[in-house]
Write a structure and sequence with these properties.
Elements: H1 4-15, E1 30-32, H2 39-49, E2 52-55, E3 73-78, H3 83-90, E4 97-100, E5 114-120, H4 127-133, E6 134-145, H5 151-158, H6 169-178, E7 182-195, H7 198-207, H8 221-234, E8 237-249
Parallel strand pairs: 2-3, 2-5, 3-4, 5-6
Antiparallel strand pairs: 1-7, 6-8, 7-8
Helix pairs in contact: 1-7
InterPro entries: 23S_rRNA_MeTrnsfrase_RlmA, Methyltransf_11, SAM-dependent_MTases_sf
Keywords: Methyltransferase, Transferase
Domain Methyltransferase type: 54-141
Length: 252
């Protein structure tokens, strides 16, 4: 049995738009701690010193749009079609060109095109392509999703899961080194994430699709109902996001 409040919240979370990569819709409904290194601030500093820069998997251009001193050449790629026009609008202010790409395809740029490549929460980092488009002495800076991120939420919907096999920082270091890059910085953080109602959970699962692969409101309704009752009785649902920052350079 579910109550009318559950049905209303499910409908609300299912109807809200998830275009772009902003999370403003969750204001007042969910919170997540920020990593201590301040990725946007680091990107802004690197951009101010760059001549030509590339943002891979820009989403809706949320981070790049806030760069106060963009470089002479600024390009962003995005592989999810609904995000491309969102990013194009957001990035007009900084003069960036948005290029629609096919996921897992080679980057559509010449060798040694950029002295800076950045990427926030990439779906997958192609380390050999990153190294190829970097100029000698260039830098790659990325904030990435760590292993087992919001695992408690995934298991609340799917049940017990095996230990995470991918997205470990050590794997990124190995891949970067194999591509000929030198890792100069690696930092990790575990961030408290809180959901105050089931609408926030539904919206989040629709947007961050790898949390529950093939998430479907109707198919996962029994698990959502159990989580809703848990929130109603015990209070907000707490899980933990995992992030790591990696910076690597192409040797000069």
């Amino acid at each position: 049995m579910t109550d009318g409040r559950f049905d209303d919240l499910i409908a609300e979370g299912a109807a809200a738009p998830v275009d772009g990569w902003g999370f403003d819709w969750l204001a007042g409904r969910a919170t997540e701690e920020r990593p201590p290194w301040g990725y946007a601030r680091l990107v802004a500093a690197r951009m101010a010193a760059a001549d030509a820069a590339l943002d891979v998997d820009t989403g809706g251009g949320e981070v790049l749009a806030e760069v106060p001193s963009p470089p002479r050449v600024l390009v962003a790629t995005e592989g999810w079609p609904p995000n491309v026009p969102v990013a194009a609008r957001a990035l007009r202010r900084v003069g960036a060109t948005v290029v629609a790409v096919t996921p897992d395809a080679p980057l559509p740029f010449a060798d040694a095109s950029f002295d800076l490549v950045v990427s926030r929460h990439p779906v997958r980092t192609d380390w050999s392509e990153t190294a190829r488009v970097l100029r000698p002495g260039g830098t790659f800076l990325s904030q990435q999703i760590g292993p087992g991120t919001v695992r408690e939420l995934s298991e609340a919907i799917l049940g017990p899961l095996p230990p995470p096999a991918s997205r470990h920082p050590e794997q990124a270091v190995t891949a970067a080194t194999a591509a000929g890059l030198t890792v100069v910085d690696l930092r990790e953080a575990t961030l408290r994430t809180v959901f105050h109602d089931i609408a926030a959970v539904v919206w989040f699962l629709r947007k961050v699709v790898w949390t529950v692969p093939d998430f479907d409101v109707d198919r996962h309704r029994p698990a959502l109902a159990r989580l809703h009752r848990r929130i109603e009785v015990e209070g907000p649902f707490v899980t933990h996001a995992r992030r790591f920052l990696i910076e690597a350079t192409r040797p000069a």
